[in-house]
Design a protein that fits this description.
This protein is an alpha+beta fold and 334 residues long. It contains 13 helices and 4 strands.
């Protein structure tokens, strides 16, 4: 990775505006509004919705709680935006006749309830798949070799962590090679480039956005990678503390012990996400040698999860960012 790709291009400030690549579009979330920009038949279809502000001092804004709350909220909003982009995209517009099963569900649940049910199920399946693939599977795989390893929870968690990161990297690599994902990742690149241009204080034009790097330290992909690393530390510390109980330590190596440890790790996941959020928040607000080292692995990973966008994709990014800019200048500072 070249130095040009790892450093901000004349960054003047850090914005809290963030986004997500969609089907032929981009979602941007600002401090006051959310926007979805999708290209339909050569034109940009833009939808803007106000955000419900959280009350200052509420429980959802407390450190180590806001991380889990924001993560779940982003998952729900992201799925809604993805579904909406599918409806707005040319492929979605062509399919105007829902199946009889969809018609029956919509009739029984009502349109709004139907959408909420679908979104809820989708988020649940997505999170369950991620937990199974990246949390439980590494423990199961390492568990097959426990009899060859020291009866030490630290050793088990370190090996499971290495396997977890390996599975995650392999998964991202394979996804990046899927033909259908290449355009999505190009929109991801357009999202990053547009935010980079805005943070550099340059006018949001195609020419200015095009020259920006497609890598960004506050990317969601980087966040997930840090989750993997933090999980190693949290699970190792928790397992060591739990094994101070003699009755639990006596079960070490048994099937029941593995089940109890897996349940413990599932319960600790919100804490892992919360700690990662606080680290990401702190690193995002500072720019020094330490934060650059901290964000370097995630930046490198974005070489897989972002592609160079064309000018039409950049136009989508510009439209989405401009739609969520706050009325008061500087209100979106990170």
């Amino acid at each position: 990775m070249s130095k040009k790709e790892t450093q901000p291009c004349c960054e003047k400030f850090k914005t809290s505006i963030g986004g997500q690549a969609l089907i032929e579009g981009i979602m941007m979330r600002g401090p006051e509004k959310d926007a979805i920009a999708v290209r339909t038949d050569g034109e940009i279809k833009l939808e803007v919705n106000p955000r419900k502000p959280r009350k200052k001092g509420s429980v959802s804004t407390w450190p180590l709680i806001r991380g889990a709350v924001n993560f779940l909220d982003s998952q729900i909003v992201g799925v809604k935006a993805l579904m909406r982009s599918a409806d707005l995209s040319p492929e979605g517009v062509e399919d105007e006749n829902p199946s009889k099963f969809d018609q029956w569900l919509e009739k029984k649940l009502g349109n709004e309830s139907f959408q909420k049910a679908i979104i809820g199920v989708t988020v649940f399946i997505s999170l369950s798949f991620s937990v199974l693939l990246f949390i439980l599977l590494p423990d199961i795989l390492v568990g097959f070799f426990d009899r060859f390893l020291p009866a030490n929870p630290l050793v088990h968690n370190l090996l499971a962590g290495v396997v977890r990161i390996g599975i995650f990297m392999l998964y991202m690599f394979l996804v990046s090679r899927m033909k259908d994902m290449k355009r999505v990742f190009a929109y991801h690149g357009a999202e990053h480039k547009t935010i980079r241009c805005y943070e550099a204080g340059l006018p949001l034009t195609v020419e200015n956005v095009r020259i920006q790097t497609r890598l960004h330290p506050r990317c969601g992909t980087s966040f997930l990678l840090v989750v993997m690393v933090i999980s190693i530390l949290v699970f190792s510390v928790a397992s060591s503390l739990l094994n101070q109980w003699s009755w639990l330590a006596a079960l070490n190596g048994t099937f029941l012990y593995r089940i109890l440890m897996m349940v413990c790790k599932l319960l600790l996941l919100p804490l892992v996400v919360a700690i990662t959020y606080e680290i990401n928040r702190w690193a995002g607000r500072h720019d020094n040698w330490f934060t650059r080292i901290l964000t370097a692995p995630g930046m490198w990973l974005q070489n897989w999860t972002t592609n160079e966008p064309d000018d039409s994709m950049i136009e989508i990014g510009i439209a989405a960012v401009q739609a969520v800019l706050p009325e008061e200048e500087g209100a979106d500072r990170w």
